[in-house]
Write a structure and sequence with these properties.
- This protein is 9% helix and 28% strand.
- The protein is mainly β and 213 residues long.
- It folds into three domains: 50 residues, no CATH class; 103 residues, Thrombin, subunit H; 31 residues, no CATH class.
- The strands form three sheets. It has a six-stranded antiparallel beta barrel with strand order 5-6-7-10-9-8. Strands 1-2-3 form a three-stranded antiparallel beta sheet, with no helix packed on it. A two-stranded antiparallel ribbon has the order 11-12.
- The two termini are 30 Å apart.
């Protein structure tokens, strides 16, 4: 599902790993906020935020992903993981990042990608996200943490040669995310927290208890 199709009244079930658990009680969604520039034709700005009525309780199966700092570039070939439920069950796949220049070449998507999109997958196909996975995370690991790099958005078919998966480029939309979540107020107040370390001895600007960027 894409952002124009979202509606309040949804329920979030976190930590679910098998289909039967879908019947378990979840956390109601209080509000859904789509990006105001979302384009239903090109799927540009394909992102939405959900505000939950009550916070999630973190556990062994529920946690937070770190966001990729806007100044941190990941090189083509960086191995990342995409996951989603598909139609019936959860699955995951290892997919390397592909440069936007290559993905916009005539043999792939011929200029269809915007700055708010990125590609990951294999030129030969065979491994990819597919229908039912839209909205799922594309995560990459750096020396500090797992980062949310992309959101499953679109593609031409599934796992077709020269048609890798196209994802929302989360780093390009962080200013909007910060504005909506009011994290920008925190960013203004904390000019430098290099002297502050988290539980793992990492330093930096802490957006979450266990996540410094």
């Amino acid at each position: 599902l894409h952002t124009r199709n979202l509606a309040s009244g949804w329920t979030v079930r976190a930590g679910v790993t098998h289909g039967s658990a879908k019947q378990e009680a979840g956390v109601p969604v209080e509000r859904v906020i789509s990006h105001p520039l979302y384009n239903d034709n090109s799927l540009d700005y394909d992102i939405a935020l959900m505000k939950l009525r009550v916070p999630l309780n973190f556990s062994d199966t529920i946690g937070a992903l770190c966001l990729l700092p806007s100044h941190q570039d990941l090189l083509p070939g960086t191995p990342c993981w995409v996951s989603g439920w598909g139609y019936t069950r959860p699955d995951q796949a290892l997919v390397p990042l592909i440069s936007t220049q290559r993905c916009n070449s005539s043999c792939m998507y011929a200029g269809e990608l915007t700055a708010r999109m990125l590609c990951a997958g294999y030129p030969q196909g065979k491994i990819d996200a597919c229908q039912g996975d839209s909205g799922g995370p594309l995560v990459c690991q750096d020396e500090l943490a797992w980062r949310l790099v992309g959101i499953v958005s679109w593609g031409r078919g599934c796992a077709q040669p020269n048609r890798p998966g196209v994802y929302t480029n989360v780093a390009q939309l962080l200013p909007w995310v910060y504005h909506i979540t009011e994290v920008w107020l925190l960013l203004k107040k904390i000019a430098n927290c290099s002297s502050v370390n988290d539980a793992h001895g990492r330093s930096g600007l802490c957006l979450f208890v266990d996540c410094c960027v």
